[in-house]
């Protein structure tokens, strides 16, 4: 029969292994959430039917079934309430989503954003034309159609709350933002890696 000291050593070793595994897992999850995605290579000017002449435009790319998109939509809804129609909002659902609870919830959230126009982009053609690689990419074009902002409006992947991107977007809509084009990190999985996408 093993001695108590041997059992204690085995228990201590098991605790060390468990703590190391738990700590490593927590670090991996945290690092994943804090790692930004690829920034957009957005065109310097916005043309086509995404823009209304003489109006500032906010274009947001979202994946139709990605749970991380929820945080971007919630932040966008707050900004939309604050700007009160001072800019057009185009919400681009890029990719083919799953027909599940997450997708249905994201649709309801998108349709509830004041003044937002939802555009379907199942083959990601529009997202590609805007150089967007990551859901949560937000582009702001001023009243002349010039790019003034490219980035994300969340603090990390799937995390709501104050962020440099959201603050910059608010200032640009209020016409108090930086004169040079601004960028902030955007958080999300690559659009092209989504398994439900073509």
Strand order of the largest sheet: 3-2-1-4-5-6
In the CATH hierarchy, what is the architecture of the largest domain at level 2? 3-Layer(aba) Sandwich
Q: Structural class, from secondary structure content? A: alpha/beta
- At the third CATH level, what is the topology name of the largest domain? Glutaredoxin
User: Unreliable segments (pLDDT under 50, ≥5 consecutive)?
Assistant: 16-33, 194-198
Oligomer: single chain
Compute the separation of the termini in Å. 60 Å
Shape: globular
How many domains make up the coordinates? 2
SS strand fraction: 15-25%
Total number of beta strands: 6
Averaging pLDDT over every residue, what do you get? 79
The fourth-level CATH homologous superfamily of the largest domain is Glutaredoxin
The total count of helices amounts to 5
The biggest beta sheet, please?
6 strands, mixed
Helix content: 25-40%
What's the alpha carbon Rg, rounded to whole Å? 21 Å
In the CATH scheme, the class of the largest domain would be Alpha Beta
Order of helices and strands: HEHEHEHEEHE
Structure write-up:
It is a single chain. With 198 residues, the chain is of the alpha/beta class. The chain has two domains: 34 residues; 146 residues, Glutaredoxin (3-Layer(aba) Sandwich), CATH 3.40.30. Helix content is 36%, strand content 15%. The protein is built from five helices and six strands; from the N terminus they run αβαβαβαββαβ. Strands 3-2-1-4-5-6 form a six-stranded mixed sheet. Strand 1, helix 2 and strand 2 form a beta-alpha-beta unit. Helix 2 runs parallel beside helix 3.
